[in-house]
Write a structure and sequence with these properties.
This protein is α+β, with helices and mostly antiparallel strands. It has helices at about 5-10, 25-35, 45-55, 65-80, 95-105, 115-130, 130-135, 150-155, 190-205, 240-245, 260-270, 275-285, 300, 310-315, 345-359, and strands at about 85, 90, 160-165, 170-175, 185, 210-215, 220-225, 255-260, 290-295, 325-335. The strands form 3 sheets. A 5-stranded antiparallel β-sheet has the order 5-4-3-7-6. A 3-stranded antiparallel β-sheet has the order 8-10-9. Strand 4 (about 170-175) and strand 5 form a beta hairpin. Helix 2 packs across helix 4 (about 65-80) and helix 5 packs antiparallel against helix 6 (about 115-130). The termini are far apart. Mean pLDDT is about 90; it is low at about 1-15 and about 345-359.
């Protein structure tokens, strides 16, 4: 290869940026399809045919996947070490204990979601991957030479901010990890696609390793590791964050909270998913609706400083909303709320007039 070509390849780092937006439920189905081949050995075309013959979907859209979709799903399984390749032959890498565990666990039906067990198994494979760590996950673990386990990443990872910089037609993505002077910029389209819409999407929406919002103070997107979600205990049982909210009430009859501030304290600093906080507010609204006052803002006001549709979506993550109702920027909580139970109808009726009169 000519010297110039070698330099271009090294500068672009294209071999590191293979990640694309894929459904890990679809990956799990494809992995099981590979295991169903005779002697667990097949070709790329044979694996595609197994997916089609078994009526499996890879994405959330029905129908036969496109050749490009097949390619990216196979590539992801190969890069993560879930599939191995010998020449043209593909087979499940069942020598790997995590891959064996994924094969022993049933794949979700079409339209279904990964179980927590499978999600953690895929998350471990992603964190084991050198490319995924180099271009994304190492930012959350400054100074750590070891490969973090899923539990260590959730427990010890630090928030990372990112932003877009530069002219509109040549904007680059800049990551700002914790630590003075630490920055990493991605400017090539393939890099931005792989990092923002590939591995970042995996970590946030597919594997539940991080969550993300745009802060009200600096307008930067903030990604932060989160704990594994707590199973839902039922409609009558308050979500765990309810007690945390109530513990922050002041000494007066009503306490005013900014939802954005709650996201920063309980989600970013407390390693909880934003949906967990909004679920706690939802529980209070449903069960103590005479003691919980919602203060709305308009979407136009909420997204006033957003510069793109993506940033608008991230800004709106720090607001509470029920259905198609207004975006809620603040809430007031009454001192009479008891967080360990649903109010009885008698108690509920007896306080209605008093609390509404104070609103």
């Amino acid at each position: 290869m000519p010297q110039r070509a070698r330099q271009c390849t090294a500068a672009s780092g294209s071999t590191q940026f293979w990640m694309r937006a894929v459904s890990f439920a679809g990956l799990h189905r494809m992995l099981h399809a590979a295991a169903s081949a005779p002697n667990r050995r097949t070709t790329a075309a044979g694996l595609n045919e197994l997916v089609v013959q078994n009526g499996l979907t890879l994405t959330r859209r029905p129908g036969v996947p496109s050749p490009t979709t097949f390619y990216h799903y196979r590539t992801t399984l190969l890069r993560l070490g879930a599939l191995s390749r010998e020449g043209r032959i593909l087979s499940p890498n069942d020598q790997h204990p995590r891959v064996r565990a994924l094969l022993n666990h049933p794949a979700p039906a079409n339209g279904g979601e990964l179980s927590d067990t499978a999600r953690d198994g895929f998350a471990a494979l992603v964190l084991d991957n050198q490319d995924c760590r180099t271009v994304f996950f190492d930012f959350f673990m400054p100074g750590s030479p070891a490969v973090p386990s899923v539990s260590v990443f959730r427990r010890e990872g630090l928030p990372v901010k990112w932003m877009r910089e530069g002219p509109t037609k040549a904007r680059r993505v800049v990551f700002r990890p914790a630590g003075v002077g630490r920055r990493r910029a991605y400017s090539l389209p393939a890099q931005i696609t792989a990092v923002l819409y590939g591995v970042r999407y995996w970590a946030r929406d597919e594997l539940g390793l991080i969550d993300e919002y745009v802060g009200s103070a600096d307008g930067l997107a903030t990604m932060f590791p989160v704990s594994r979600p707590v199973p839902d205990a039922g409609a009558d049982c308050p979500p765990p964050l309810v007690q945390g909210l109530l513990a922050e009430r002041g000494s007066g009859e009503w306490t005013l909270f900014s939802v954005s501030d709650l996201v920063a304290r309980h989600c970013r600093d407390g390693r909880q998913r934003i949906s967990a906080l909004l679920g706690a507010i939802d529980w209070l609204v449903q069960n103590w609706h005479h003691h919980t006052v919602l203060i709305p803002t308009s979407r136009a006001m909420a997204t006033l400083t957003a510069t793109s549709p993506m940033q608008e979506d991230l800004v709106l993550r720090r607001y509470y909303r029920r259905g198609k109702g207004p975006y809620i920027s603040h809430i007031r909580l009454h001192a009479g709320i008891i967080g360990d139970r649903v109010p009885s109808s008698r108690h509920h009726a007896g306080t209605t007039k008093r609390t509404e009169a104070r609103v």
